[in-house]
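Q: Given only this backbone (426 positions), what sequence would you predict?
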């Protein structure tokens, strides 16, 4: 039988064994053998953000120069679109029980191919219920708007002395019919809000504002508190409208003015002074109407209030484009003559400089004739008719008359520009 170890000896042995175990455990970490033995990185210290330090821009490539290029467009303007009493039955079809005015414009194919094509609509379209009528208080069938659209027009001035022939209702219905056909209008409005917005039409990247005003409304008063119905000529107001149009983004401003004296082939001093004043104020193109005969055009150079030179163009009267007037109807000579006034416009890029070119003019004549016992109307381009001389309806005396008309008109239209010594048929 073995003797038990003394207590002191046992304690010493136990202490040695415990020390051995501690030393042995220090040689093995107990970590996963697949874990990296690299020491863990210290925790990231978040840097304070200086809110006053601007963001550094991304490096950019040098800008490539823009190649210069030019855009071209054309404004085409004609004069009065009128609807006298004899024109109404000539356009009516008993078979279809409706009106059509398309034949008026059929000989003009290609002549109204502009980017902006504008006419003076000198008749209300108040609807059939108001009763269709001619002079002195016009009311044309709304199918006239269809014919205008079909012919190539996209803008009409509605500010003239016949705007209120069918009173306020006529103004409103006319605008309704025009908008239904997609035609722009300027010069009359259905509300103050509508009147406050200038008509600006952009084509080929060029924005043109179209404003329109008339000297009066044949004594028919504008209803109290509704001055917005028709724009009357007020020089200060027109200048404000020109500025507003410019501020609204218009690069050019066209002003249609129903002014001057009926049947006078030369502009009055009032027409000249107003045109110069408006060009000085920022207008670029002035289209005149009311005399019912063609008046010349001219370039106007003037200095504005800032000392800058401004150059604009005015044609004082575009004459009658379609009507029943003419010497054969007892009205003044040349009342059956009009003009297609085409103005080339260019815009240079990248400078975005807009310039006007020299106008081209085509003299027109309203031919009245009979077909199957019914009176008919059509608008003929004089020079083309004379060059071809193959029209089956015209008689020899028509060609003789047109030769005189064409020669006179070419000289007359440029008489102010050329500062001719003698103005034909004053």
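A: Predicted residues:
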């Amino acid at each position: 039988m073995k003797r038990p170890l003394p207590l002191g000896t046992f304690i010493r042995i136990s202490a040695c064994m415990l020390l051995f175990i501690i030393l042995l455990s220090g040689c093995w970490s107990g970590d996963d053998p697949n874990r990296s033995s690299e020491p863990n990185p210290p925790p990231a210290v978040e840097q304070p953000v200086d809110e006053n330090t601007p963001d550094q821009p991304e490096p950019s490539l040098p800008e490539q120069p823009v190649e210069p290029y030019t855009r071209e467009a054309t404004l085409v303007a004609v004069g009065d679109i009128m609807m006298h009493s004899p024109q109404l039955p000539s356009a009516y079809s008993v078979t279809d029980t409706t009106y059509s005015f398309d034949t008026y414009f059929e000989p003009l194919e290609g002549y109204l191919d502009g980017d902006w094509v504008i006419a003076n609509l000198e008749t209300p379209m108040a609807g059939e219920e108001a009763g269709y009528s001619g002079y002195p208080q016009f009311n044309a069938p709304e199918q006239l708007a269809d014919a205008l659209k079909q012919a190539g027009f996209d803008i009409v001035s509605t500010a003239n002395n016949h705007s209120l022939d069918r009173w306020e209702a006529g103004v409103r219905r006319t605008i309704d019919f025009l908008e239904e056909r997609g035609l722009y209008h300027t010069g009359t409005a259905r509300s103050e809000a509508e009147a406050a917005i200038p008509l600006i039409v952009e084509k080929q990247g060029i924005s043109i504002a179209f404003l329109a005003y008339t000297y009066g409304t044949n004594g028919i008063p504008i209803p109290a508190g509704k001055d917005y119905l028709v724009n009357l000529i007020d020089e200060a107001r027109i200048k404000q409208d020109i500025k507003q149009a410019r501020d609204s983004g218009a690069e050019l401003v066209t002003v249609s003015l129903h002014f001057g004296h009926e049947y006078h082939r030369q502009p009055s001093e009032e027409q000249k002074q107003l045109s110069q004043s408006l060009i000085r104020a920022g207008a670029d193109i002035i289209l005149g109407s009311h005399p019912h005969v063609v008046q010349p055009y001219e370039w106007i150079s003037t200095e504005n209030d800032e000392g800058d030179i401004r150059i604009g163009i005015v044609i004082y009267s575009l004459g009658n484009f379609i009507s029943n007037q003419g010497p054969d109807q007892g009205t003044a000579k040349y009342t059956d003559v009009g003009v297609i006034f085409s103005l080339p416009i260019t815009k240079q890029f990248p400078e975005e400089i807009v310039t006007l070119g020299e106008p081209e003019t085509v003299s027109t004549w309203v031919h009245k004739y009979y077909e199957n016992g019914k009176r008919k109307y059509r608008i003929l381009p004089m020079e083309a008719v004379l060059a071809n001389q193959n029209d089956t309806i015209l008689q020899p005396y028509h060609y003789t008359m047109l030769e005189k008309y064409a020669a006179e008109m070419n000289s007359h239209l440029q008489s102010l520009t050329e500062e001719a010594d003698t103005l034909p048929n004053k």
